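User: Earlier you gave me the apo prediction for this protein. Now I'd like the version with S-adenosylmethionine bound, so I can compare the two side by side. Same sequence as before, with the ligand SMILES added.
Assistant: Got it. Here's the input I'm using:
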Amino acid sequence: MPEWVSALRLLGPEFSQSEELWIAELPRERAADVMARLRGLGFGAELAVYVRPRLKRPAIRDGRTREARARRDSTPGFTNRGVRSDEEGRFSLTPEVLALRLGKRAEGHVLDLSCGIGGNAIGFARAGCRVTAVDLDGTRLAMAKHNAKLYGVADRVTFVQADARTVEVDADLAFIDPPWGGDYNKTRTTLEDLPLLADVLDRGRRPLWAKVPPSFDARTVDASAEAWFGEAAGDRHRVKFTLLRF
Ligand SMILES: C[S@@+](CC[C@H](N)C(=O)[O-])C[C@H]1O[C@@H](n2cnc3c(N)ncnc32)[C@H](O)[C@@H]1O
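And here is the structure of the complex with S-adenosylmethionine:
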């Protein structure tokens, strides 16, 4: 387990560490649930799950069904009524509570290089930062503007329709939540899968924080990594994204 993932948060309090293994004695159902939750998760490395005695197929299947059901109760995006969104915006929105928490770690002027419908930009602004929010897509940018008004932070955010690669704005911190490419089943992703992030990095923007999928192999970049978990019952033990700090 990489150091930047809280193993206890991921696995639950029953687990304890013994050398390279995290071990717990669990009722069969709980073991099936943990197994389902860890399925396909690798953080870029190999994460192997052993259950002894082996679980029978129906128990594994039931665990997967419970996991799929639990996923429906996930940490909400925007909670204010009246927010505007399109499908991609809703799908890629950073949960409100996590965006605000991230915002509280920043200060000064933040440049959000791919703001979408504004999840992070609004989080930074609510935490007191001045924000320049950039997106290539004008429709989504207009939605972000509307949403910022709804959250009472429009006066702290400047919206710019531009390409993140070429936008020329100086800031204390740049943040990027690039498109993740749509394949959420990959067990390992790198900069090759996130070309927008790769380009922004190549252009030397620093300091830069990036929100990348949990499958990102953080060993392939020169950055500190941190796994961010959900808050709702259905994703409290699930890594929602990895934060890279360059
Ligand atoms: C993952 S979403 C951002 C979600 C946002 N952080 C939120 O929580 O609402 C990625 C956004 O990047 C935008 N995008 C894609 N290519 C871009 C580029 N070259 N420059 C700026 N924005 C770009 C897309 O239009 C999309 O809205």
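For your comparison, keep in mind: The mean pLDDT is 94.
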